[in-house]
Amino acid sequence: EVQLVESGGGLVQPGGSLRLSCAASGFTFSRFWMHWVRQAPGKGLVWVSRINSDVSITSYADSVKGRFTISRDNAKNTLYLQMNSLRAEDTAVYYCARGYCSGGSCYRNGMDVWGQGTTVTVSS
Amino acid sequence: QSVLTQPPSVSGTPGQRVTISCSGSSSNIGSNFVYWYQQLPGTAPKLLIYKSDQRPSGVPDRFSGSKSGTSASLAISGLRSEDEADYYCAAWDDSLSAVVFGGGTKLTVL
Lengths: 124, 110
Prior knowledge:
The complex is a heterodimer. Chain A is mainly β. Chain A is built from no helices and eleven strands. In chain A, 0% of the residues lie in helices and 56% in strands. In chain A, the strands form two sheets. In chain A, strands 2, 4, 5, 6, 9, 10 and 11 form a seven-stranded mixed β-sheet that branches. A four-stranded antiparallel β-sheet of chain A has the order 1-3-8-7, with no helix packed on it. Chain A starts with a strand and ends with a strand. The relative contact order of chain A is 0.31. Chain B has strands at 9-12, 18-23, 34-39, 46-49, 63-68, 71-76, 85-93, 98-101, 105-109. The radius of gyration of chain B is 13 Å and the shape is globular. In chain B, 41% of the residues are buried. The chains are: A mainly beta, B mainly beta. Chain A binds chain B through residues 35, 37, 44-47, 50, 59-62, 95, 97, 100, 102, 107, 109-112, 114-117, and chain B through 2, 32-33, 35, 37, 39, 44-47, 50-51, 54, 56-57, 86, 88, 90-92, 96-104.
């Protein structure tokens, strides 16, 4: 079964750090672009970051640039998001998602497999 | 304030056809593929449409996407109660070098 499972969320004080993990299974993780998307309570989806299969390309939303770092370990089938200098407005459910591929073509900015999400709360 | 603009809500009765609009600009919808997602209450999003008008396998043909210029639309025909959900459009934005989402549209089946 194709699956993504996030972990690492929790309560952290403003200015603190957290590292989220996303364990992939059921597919060849090393072949796919991967994304982080977040959703604040009662709000819409907001894209956070993406990384390509060989770690040569990363992209970030302006709101997290310089504070968050996306990475992956293809040997461990795991995606990461290192979050530093956390702010109250970073409070959200964080989803990892897989870039979509079909029929030999990949649409790096579409996301077809999503995890269940992990909750990050930034509060004193 | 989302880069892509969607109506906050739409509604319809069972069997009806509804459309959800998504308005952008030349740097996103105008030059890149549009994706549509469905998010049922309390669950993770699900990809409904990719490449602006293509359905992944398993998505019913009641769902269709289209794009014209800097706008896109999602149409749902033969509306069912289980279609009640939030719907989001998304696209890559060349100016921002980021994926941008619409603010989401809540579909209510009356």
